[in-house]
C-alpha cells in the first residue's frame, strides 16, 4: 500500500488490532513552516490575558523542525502531559493551531 516518499510502521494495539502510521519522508522543516506555527501561537498568546504556553515551550517545540515525521510513530499522542507535548500532538495529528491553543489553555 505504501509508495515511494511515504514511510509507514505497523504497531500492535489492544485486542489483536493494529495501528498503521503513515508519514511523508523528510525533515518536518522541509514539509511545514514551523516558524509560522510558532508565530501563530505567539499571536494567540498576545490575544488572551494569560496563556499556559511560554516562550520556553515554543523554543522547545521548535526542535520538531529537525525531526522526521516518522520519528513520531511511537509517540504517545493520546496522553500529552505538558504544553510542549500538546503542541507536538496538535502538530503531528494536524489539528488547527487555534484548537490546540484552546485545549492547552482550557478555553473549551
Task: Give the biggest beta sheet.
Answer: 2 strands, antiparallel
User: What does the overall shape look like?
Assistant: globular
Through-space gap between termini = 38 Å
Radius of gyration: 15 Å
Task: Summarize model confidence as the mean pLDDT.
Answer: 91
What's the number of helices? 5
Number of strands: 2
Low-confidence spans: none
Strand content: 5-15%
* Helix-strand topology string: EEHHHHH
Subunit arrangement of the protein: single chain
Structural class: alpha+beta
Strand order of the largest sheet: 1-2
Helix content: 40-55%
Give the SSE map.
Blueprint: E1 6-12, E2 18-24, H1 28-31, H2 34-46, H3 55-62, H4 83-93, H5 97-104
Antiparallel strand pairs: 1-2
Helix pairs in contact: 2-3, 3-4, 4-5
Core attributes:
2 strands; 108 residues; two-stranded antiparallel ribbon; alpha+beta
Task: Provide a descriptive summary of the structure in words.
- The protein is of the alpha+beta class.
- Helices cover 41% and strands 13% of the residues.
- It is built from five helices and two strands.
- It has a two-stranded antiparallel ribbon.
- β1 (6-12) and β2 (18-24) form a beta hairpin.
- α2 (34-46) packs antiparallel against α3 and α4 (83-93) runs antiparallel to α5.
- 17% of the residues are buried.
Summarize the structure.
By secondary structure, the protein is α+β, with helices and mostly antiparallel strands. The chain has helices at residues 28-31, 34-46, 55-62, 83-93, 97-104; strands at residues 6-12, 18-24. A two-stranded antiparallel sheet has the order 1-2.
